[in-house]
From TrEMBL:
Residues 229-327 form the HTH araC/xylS-type domain. The keyword Transcription applies. GO terms for molecular function: DNA-binding transcription factor activity; sequence-specific DNA binding. Pfam families: HTH_18. The keyword Transcription regulation applies. Keywords: DNA-binding, Transcription, Transcription regulation. This is Transcriptional regulator, AraC family.
Amino acid sequence: MALKLYGDDIENPLMERDHPLTGSLPYQDIIECETHLDLPYGRGSYNEIYFGDIHIGYGLANLADKTLLNFETDHETVEMHFAMKGKSSAVSGNFVENIDFSDGQNNIIYASGMEGTMEWESRNFELFEINLSPGFFKKFLPDESSLFETFRNRMEKGNGCQLNPEHNRINARMYELINEIINCERKGLFKRMFIEAKTIELLLLQFEQMSDQSLIKTSLKRTEIDKIHAVKDFIMKNHDSDHSLIELAHYAGTNEFALKKGFKELFGTTVFGFWSDLKMDEARKMILEKEMTISEVSDAIGYKNPRHFSTAFKKKFGIIPSQLKKF
């Protein structure tokens, strides 16, 4: 299984990978690597985690201009693609249509050996992708709709395609799962088990979105979507702080009503519901993995009153923090 990424100079690839057939490795083995990319108009990095039937890639780039790259792969894969930031467009000979993504979109792509070009259009570019072996993917592929059956038939014929003709929005729970995978601090077998479980949950969420076609459309304009994503990014980087809705709206250059309505439409939850979920996930991690008291955890995630923290924690997980600490 090989992957090559290069600019105009074919003789000197920007990235070249020859991955082993990971399915043949002992179950507990998990491989991780990071590649720094010296791009034509900027710099970037690409982090990988792979084991068994799962290969995860997380890329970041800061670009001064549009960047055109060439790519080659020689393997058959099903890719869960999440465009976190920026716009991209890929052209390959075995795809009928271009593969175009804007930030906040997700889809599932089947490819069997690809060669073509891709263009990254935005200054800040970020993507998250999980490649699955077709055999692993088919174990979960539903068969109750024509959308899934069409994808299955194209896979059998080796025709590159997107599962859904229209992309879906990355919802709040998807962002949480992606964040959990990227920042997982477990090691060895425990890390593999954790990531495999989160991958299956992400796949479930994608399938559920595609079963509900009403989730595809949005009435929001491009500028409105950008502002709401700016608030989401701010929350994810500052989840332990405390800000009012009007402060968040002013930060993004919008108003409270537009932020509340747009956030719910894009992510399926409220601004503070999303923020609370992030805080509770971080709190659970602290309780399980660090030597901290409940009061210390409460203070660390921005709660002034430990009782209010315990109430929010129980609402999210069904137990109070002190009960979790006993496990």
